[in-house]
Design a protein that fits this description.
Layout (H helix, E strand, L loop, with lengths): L2 E6 L7 H13 L4 E5 L3 H5 L3 E4 L26 H13 L4 E6 L1 H14 L3 E5 L15 H22 L2 E6 L6 H10 L3 E3 L7 H13 L5 E6 L6 H12 L4 E5 L11 H19 L5 E6 L2 E6 H6 L7 H10 L2
Parallel strand pairs: 1-2, 1-4, 4-5, 5-10, 6-8, 6-9, 7-8
Antiparallel strand pairs: 2-3, 10-11
Length: 323
Amino acid sequence: MRRIGVLTSGGDAPGMNAAIRAVERSASRRRIEVVGYIDGYNGLVNDDRTTLTDRTVGNVIQRGGTFLGTSRCPEFREPEGRARAAENMRKARVDGLVVVGGDGSFKGALALSEEHDIPVVGIPGTIDNDVWGTEETLGFDTAVNAAMRAIDQVRDTSESTGMMFFVEVMGRSSGAIALHTAVAAGAVGVLVPESHSDIWQLAERVESSAARGKRSHIIVVAEGDEAGGAFGVAERFREVLDFPHRVVVLGHIQRGGAPTTRDRVIASQSGALAAQALADGRWNVMIGMQGMRPVEVPLAEVVEHQAPPADYGLLQLAQDLAG
């Protein structure tokens, strides 16, 4: 290969810039040129791209988000849009493509490859950690740390006032962020989409801990919980136990900010292996993390399988350690 492209798709995630940097620098060492497509698949469809060099990807490893941009592209979901994207790549002599995104982005990449014989490699980038075939996605560690720091601050007010806080974290239909945050922040309870919300049990736990003199009560709620997020849980809880409370929705602060060391390392490993795979003729794979090491997972298997279930061991641990 003489030239490859890279794009970021779906929701932005800390570590995407570090992955772009690793793709470019790893490719350039093999004398392969790299172009970056602007705003995800929109750049591919509209041939909106920029040449990347060692200098243009300098000083980005510490930045959150994605300097290439990301957005939805309805045109790419249609065969005609993918055909247009493929033709643009051929005209620009772009021989392969690295896609940093989630499972939806990978479905589009695989369709592009199967329909137009274009080599693609995926890097899982989403704070939700809901991609099959990898133990960790870019941005997850940063999002959990952001949520944990926020809850540490909320706890000060909870301890001072004796008020209970329902803290909503992101994650779509995955409870991964909520579970890890609840354990790390010492929450009294955690509610996730993968497990039925037992409001009665939660109320008993809060009432019991309050009777023992506990003043701070933090309940972490995944945004996809069937009760309707933190506000829905708080309303249901009030029907069971009349306890002063407030609701805090952390929202998109979890998706921004400088990536953690962990996310920078994962991004660097994944980007380098993605460029290497394309250069060596191994494509239609995703670079996942398994056993703390980057591995190549067939992209077809990734898109065929559902996201991994919640770690019920963490759910039990959070409940066991709640004081």
